[in-house]
Write the structure tokens for this entry.
Amino acid sequence: MATVEVIALGGVGEIGKNCTVVKQGDDMVVIDCGLSFPNEEMLGVDIVIPDFTYLVENKEKIRGVFLTHAHEDHVGALPYLLSQIDVPVYASEFTLLLIKQKLEEKLPGKEADLRPFNFGDQIQAGALTVEPVRVTHSIPENACMAVRTEHGIIFFTGDFKFDFTPVDNKLTNITRIGEIGREGVLALMSDSTNVERPGWGPSEARVSEGFRKVFSEAQGRILLTTFASNIHRMQQLVDVAAEFGRKVACVGRRMEQNLDICSRMGYIKMPKDVMVRLDEIRDYRDDQLAILTTGSQGEPMSALVQMSKGEYGRLQIKTGDTLIYSARPIPGNEGAIWRTVNRLIRQGCRVIYESPTPIHVSGHAYQEELKMMINLTRPFYIAPVHGEPRHQFLYNEIAKDMGYPEHRIFTLDAGVPLVFEETNAGYGEPVACGRVLVDNAGTVGISDEVLRDRSHISKDGIIMITLAVDVEKGELVGDPIMQSKGFQGPDGTLDKAYEILWDNLKQLSREEVRDVSRVRHATSDVVRRFIQKRTSLRPLVLPSVIEI
Ligand SMILES: [Zn+2]
């Protein structure tokens, strides 16, 4: 019997870039291929994706990438993987619809092998079988994945909550999850992100009550911002607007695209005559309008952020407007979001971001829902995913409370395989794993050194020194030139640094001066050390030596 390995390339010990491999002999399947967003230290970085070295090295063995749902932290890195290897991609028709746009933008001309699945399909992937099972979340057509191996089923919950009144009335297939549990789940890889929240999370449908309250009070226009993929949230806004006799317009490219596709494909049901184009809103009074907008994360180019600055040509904020902030700030975006909110308030817009009647609910399971998933699947082993170490730790404590002994509970680290043999399980040898940074221009692979330099420059500035050397004679030609940008030390620091540099250079022998790289190093060392000692600042010191 082959061993079975589960290897997370991301999504464990962190929130984001979910990507996990199940390997049995020569067959591998990949569950999700997500990105994460940069932290505040990653200057100029747009997105972070998993290091795909391990997948590229094993590309012959990969039978498919299986996507649980269309959120960026589960699908956003797919174009970068498909630019390196050709593998079939399995997902629901809805998920494929959303990712198709992005693939066309990022990989123009590439014919990706996209294969739609239905819930309940048994998809053969070499000797493995993958079965997607419907489960509720904050996006339509969301799946758990049951991967059948020789040792039993590895059950990935993906992102989930147990919502008994989902907006699209498509309930979790609890019966099927229970049947899979009875068949024999070897390991449960569960979402753990909301494990700190006790009880049972509120249904997405609760949000309509929050919207009704705002609609019953607002005198002017009502704006709503949420994630462009949150189709059910938009559906509820449109329904409530129709109830109150308001027309709905939409601003923001991604949101317009998603609304268009989803209403054409029937994933969103538009009440009759409720949608209007943005240029038609002038035909209506303010209290007859609601406007959906992108920008819930304070993205600089989004419609909402530009409106907050008064720079959006198609729509201006005015006194009397009400904005419903119907989203959760992704960690790292808080600063940009609050700056946007503050600018909107200054323009006379009322901003509702917290309310006793919810205007946003989480798409992830709370404690009791997580316990219910354990109870339904009755796994032999437990290893939480989609969480930081604090979430994984707390999840495992809960598993212990439910009677799981220590040796059946695992805390996964990215790149470290969890190896299942016939009668036991344990950690294997780490594989190549890490993060790859992509900058705002789409360049992949921004190195740690580049980040370090950016950090030094942004904090303490840059000092440039230009020297000319006559290599034949072993002499310096003329005086060094020292310039700085963004550096500010106590008065006279640069003059003194220049003096010390000059003194040092004069002491070099002819032989030493002929060695240009030595001159370069000596220059940066002397200046860097002096500045650090005198000011505790660490500007980037950049010597440039011209050979004459
Ligand atoms: Zn999700």
